[in-house]
Amino acid sequence: MNSPKKNERRGEEGQSIATIFRYADWIDILLMLLGTIGAIGDGMSTNCLLVFASRIVNSLGYGQTRQHNDNFMVEVQKVPIFLMHASVFISGLVFATYFSWRLALVAFPTLLLLIIPGMIYGKYLVYLSKKSRAEYGKANAILERALSSIKTIYSFTAEKTIIDRYSSILDRTTKLGIKQGIAKGLAVGSAGLCFAIWAFLAWYGSHLVMYKGESGGRIYAAGISFILSGLSLGIALPDLRYFTEASVAATRIFKRIDRVPEIDSEDTKGLVLDKIQGQITFQHVSFTYPCRPDATVLKDFSLEVEAGKTVALVGASGSGKSTAIALLQRFYDVNSGIVKIDGVDLRTLNLKWIRGKMGLVSQDHALFGTSIKENIMFGKLDATMDQIMAAAMAANAHNFIGQLPEGYETKVFIISGHFFDQST
């Protein structure tokens, strides 16, 4: 039987590339269309110039001038690059056939000499690059943890251990860098095959000029078109994988966008009571977390809290105390039973309204990177300053806040610490 993960992976891989553009409006489509036309035009421009070159260069090469073009490396997205090289390949073959079909027919099998090295070295370099980035990530993680815990490292005289671990990872990246250099050298060296092919085309082209009446300019243009065509195809083919990766990534993103939550916090439906007393009832409630369906947290749990009463839930860790509060806030729905507020099923009430009527000091405290005043106002955005101070007094924090230089306007900064295993 196929596992759910395999089925999910198969579903992701089966999506069409068209799903990426499902949210594109007419402006997006127009811009992408113009970009596509521009990429194709950029790719065809070189071959179109060869049409003029074939008219200028005569059979004896009289009046030729040497012209050098600068290569500009532009950082663009993968799709335009692929379209550009694909258009160079197609237009190059078309122009080569147009200028001299005899030369194009003989030269066509030599495409393999240009394509295969580019594909092999391209995939190998991508593989080495990913491994190198992963190793550098490990090294940076060690360095970051060492700097954030520098006193602890000195206290336990663990400097040499950290340095050795950091150096061992850098040694691996050095070996990967050597492999990358060798692969790049072979890739650059294999590019010299185009000169061998060009020499072959020049020899055969001269044969066509002497014995078949071909024009020297047309033979020159056909040869250049063919060489550019083969090189562009070798560059374009490795980029095909980006289409698949984009499709899979888009599928994962849209899967989350299209997900309909069982409990929608933005749902405007539901009852809004004219007046709320605060009576809470748990009636034969059973519950398991979705991530652990086999572990029952609450089983046939019943509790009734009258309005205005104080109740303490006492139990061991994991016995369901926090779970009961989470169910009351309706972060989850019960598996069986019912939770009521003032005798009304919690699931029938407007979720945002009922949460707005609750005040909670959670065991998982949280502070936002803003002023103390705005942190206190987070549960009631229209609170007055008197209400803010009253809340601080109730929390026994007013005197402490008053001693700060800026009082309630003091900015809060979150400082965190990290523990790590030195064996990793």
Automatic annotation (TrEMBL):
Subcellular localization, as worded in the UniProt entry: Membrane
Annotated GO CC locations: plasma membrane
Keyword annotations from UniProtKB, A to Z: ATP-binding, Membrane, Nucleotide-binding, Transmembrane, Transmembrane helix
Entry annotated with the keyword Transmembrane helix: yes
Keyword Cytoplasm listed: no
Sequence intervals crossing the membrane: 81-101, 107-128, 185-205, 217-237
Membrane topology of the entry: Multi-pass membrane protein
SUPFAM superfamilies on file: ABC transporter transmembrane region, P-loop containing nucleoside triphosphate hydrolases
Main subcellular location: membrane
Domain ABC transmembrane type-1: residue ranges: 77-245
MF GO annotations: ABC-type transporter activity; ATP binding; ATP hydrolysis activity
InterPro entries: ABC1_TM_dom, ABC1_TM_sf, ABC_transporter-like_ATP-bd, P-loop_NTPase, Type_1_exporter
PANTHER family: ABC TRANSPORTER B FAMILY, ATP BINDING CASSETTE SUBFAMILY B
Name recorded for this polypeptide: ATP-BINDING CASSETTE SUB-FAMILY B
UniProt organism field: Salix purpurea
Taxonomic lineage of the native organism: Eukaryota, Viridiplantae, Streptophyta, Embryophyta, Tracheophyta
